[in-house]
């Protein structure tokens, strides 16, 4: 796992693209989070004539974190739901990418503990695909 740009994490998966997407979603749901939206970037690119390897955005959240945002700094609502992207690599494997919640929520009041919890959730997702 390496950090690109400021607080962006890129983790190489030990699995193929579809398995990586599946494992990421299973881990998210196993952490009692809800996958609220999945974006098929590959399909969207096809709409404008571009063929690409697989790329899926996964957006997820849990209402308890929404409650924390509401109670502490409602301006952080723009950061929800959380998101990550799985990108297929030329060798058929995948890379998972996201911004660390601790950096995303650092500019808001009273959300440090929540951000730490969410960093651990993302860490579990990475662990599920890099084993």
Can you describe this structure?
This protein has 131 residues and is of the alpha+beta class. The chain has 5 helices and 6 strands. Strands 1-2-6-5-4-3 form a 6-stranded antiparallel sheet.
Number of strands: 6
Instruction: State the distance separating the first and last CA atoms.
Output: 12 Å
Mean pLDDT: 93
> Which strand-content bin applies to the residues?
25-35%
> Which structural category fits the helices and strands?
alpha+beta
What order do the strands of the largest sheet run in, or round the barrel if closed?
1-2-6-5-4-3
**For the CA atoms, what is the radius of gyration?**
15 Å
Uncertain segments are none
Question: What is the number of helices?
Answer: 5
List strands and helices in order, with pairings.
Layout: E1 2-4, E2 8-16, H1 17-30, E3 34-40, H2 41-46, E4 55-61, H3 63-72, E5 82-88, E6 93-99, H4 101-104, H5 112-130
Antiparallel strand pairs: 1-2, 2-6, 3-4, 4-5, 5-6
Short overview:
The chain is of the alpha+beta class and 131 residues long. Helices cover 40% and strands 31% of the residues.
List keywords for this structure.
131 residues, alpha+beta, six-stranded antiparallel β-sheet, 40% helix
């Amino acid at each position: 796992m390496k950090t690109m740009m400021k607080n962006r994490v890129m983790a190489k998966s030990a699995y193929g693209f579809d398995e990586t997407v599946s494992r990421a979603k299973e881990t998210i749901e196993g952490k009692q989070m809800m996958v609220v939206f999945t974006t098929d970037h590959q399909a969207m690119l096809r709409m404008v004539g571009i063929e690409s390897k697989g790329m899926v955005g996964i957006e997820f959240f849990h209402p308890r974190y929404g409650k924390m945002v509401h109670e502490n700094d409602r301006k952080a609502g723009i950061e929800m739901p959380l998101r990550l992207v799985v990108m297929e690599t030329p060798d058929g494997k995948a890379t998972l990418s996201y911004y660390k919640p601790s950096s995303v929520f650092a500019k808001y009041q009273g959300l440090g503990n929540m951000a730490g919890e969410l960093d651990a959730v993302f860490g579990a997702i990475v662990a599920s695909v890099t084993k």
